[in-house]
Amino acid sequence: MANRSSICELCGSEDGVVLVELPMSDASEEQSVYLCANCNTQIDSNDLDETHFNCLNDSMWSEVPAVKIMSYILWTRLGRQDMVEMMYLEEDELQVAKQIVEAEENKLVYKDANGVELKAGDSIVILKDLDVKGAGFTAKRGTTVTRIGLAPGDAGHVEGRVNGTKIFIKTEFIKKA
To answer: HEC string of 61-118?
Structure first.
């Protein structure tokens, strides 16, 4: 087997390879992944280029548990549930991967158009007329929506009831009441 530290364990690049710990780890090499500068930068910023991460098609089958766990996390971030379901992880690996994903989802910060943090149960005001797709009405500017919910895994949307219909609203079109 080749030296683990010489290439990125996700994409195979040799550029600026560094050892990166999984988000929840004991700082051991077994719970770390060797990543190139490109993968590391994208993962840190969470600005993932799905085309680049097509490399996960191969790395998700790695024999290195940390690489499989990182692949699971990245497929989840990319919204590729089809790929997540295709993966095989040992029970302990799957548990760690799910804990990391859950912790990341709980870290999302929802902000209105003014940058004010939103929480579940807040009231908001719609800032512009919004056509509600599939419902056949327009949510009017100035409408107050009470007891909003936060869209799971998407800090760019909240959910609430307008005209008795549950809708998702982009946070850029609302302000906290």
So the answer is: CCCCHHHHHHHHHHHHHCCCHHHHHHCCCCHHHHHHHHHHHHHHHHCCCEECCCCCEE
